[in-house]
């Protein structure tokens, strides 16, 4: 904390110095003194950075940002570059999570992997050991395409709640869709149903304060995840809860890519059509998903739910396959990139990826190229237009590397594609909240479901093939002929890929 406050003191010195030099007459001696002070601060930051023993590429990236982007680069470094703090900030939560989840898993039967196919067995053997998350078999799930299918199912389940409703979202807006969901929450709270609502403080900036007060008056227990004002001087400002979880009575759960806002049902004219994938889950899998919510809730509210039997009773369902819920983030040991890597490395015939942000780390890129070299058919689908300059052009900067290996790249044209889907060999899939970028891999609290449910996977494959019809397949010849200006934008954006 002392080092963190010192760094912010440096920032204030920079800003004040720049203001004085720019707006007031100063002597040459004062000017050179300011330059020397600035250089000393940057050298101190670079020395601290080197002592962290990061990868050479990551270290050089931040050195370049600090040197070539005065003040703005230092500010960016303070809020996006100091990932080393996360081990300290969330160490106690990580240990506590593991102990509580182990207690939950002890209530369930020992997982049986004997009936799995080769790629499935290799993946789950790794994921169980690496993530310390159990697998479930007495479960089922339903794939929900876009907001048109998701929100009617979700609202129906909420209206049928008899005991409790637990909701966790990264982005929740006070618009027509958000108000409709809030009305249901308040109605159920007045009926005596326990309603708990956890929202990310940064992602839900458009959740109005008056609506929060209205929810509280109606009896909804609502808390923010890591309020910004409390995290200004530490890395908690930078770690966001990107999970989307809804649990109803411990029997039904919802998880996937959809937040709550009118753009998610295609009603935002500035955004247009929104392509996404969500899931409705039932059975033992709900208990694992619910445990993640309860641990997050306890972290920010100090209310312990996970020790209450009313919230930890598994409700079995007719099995459709093998399922594993895996949360990742600074409070968990494993990274989602490692699980994606394991899926791709275990693939024998096909890898299909759909992601809005494709800024993969080196292991993911290596896994994709090795899969293609083995004869695995690899497809990557991304939106044609993204919601940010850096993410859009950083994504495109990886196309030449993929195309050279014979990997098929598709650019989704119909609208903005926000789904996070990975399918391998037509028998193993992942759907959840994690993008293929460094923020999801390093900073965000995420949750994905890995499963072998053949009916659900067939739906995902059918949707993927439909999306391909709305996409343009990138031609290597045409792409290599793009203008120098396009290549310049890609190369510039790629400089920031380590922090996107």
TrEMBL record:
SUPFAM superfamilies: Phospholipase D/nuclease. GO terms for cellular component: plasma membrane. It is found in: Cell membrane. It is a multi-pass membrane protein. One of its GO terms (molecular function) is cardiolipin synthase activity. Residues 237-264, 413-440 form the PLD phosphodiesterase domain. It catalyses: 2 a 1,2-diacyl-sn-glycero-3-phospho-(1'-sn-glycerol) = a cardiolipin + glycerol. It is an enzyme of class 2 (transferase). Keywords: Cell membrane, Lipid biosynthesis, Lipid metabolism, Membrane, Phospholipid biosynthesis, Phospholipid metabolism, Repeat, Transferase, Transmembrane, Transmembrane helix. Its EC number is 2.7.8.-. The chain crosses the membrane at residues 7-25, 31-51, 60-79. It holds the Pfam family PLDc_N. One of its GO terms (biological process) is cardiolipin biosynthetic process. The active site is at 242, 244, 249, 418, 420, 425. The keyword Hydrolase does not apply. Belongs to the phospholipase D family. Cardiolipin synthase subfamily. HAMAP family: Cardiolipin_synth_Cls. Catalyzes the reversible phosphatidyl group transfer from one phosphatidylglycerol molecule to another to form cardiolipin (CL) (diphosphatidylglycerol) and glycerol. This is Cardiolipin synthase. The lineage of its organism: Bacteria, Bacillati, Bacillota, Bacilli, Bacillales.
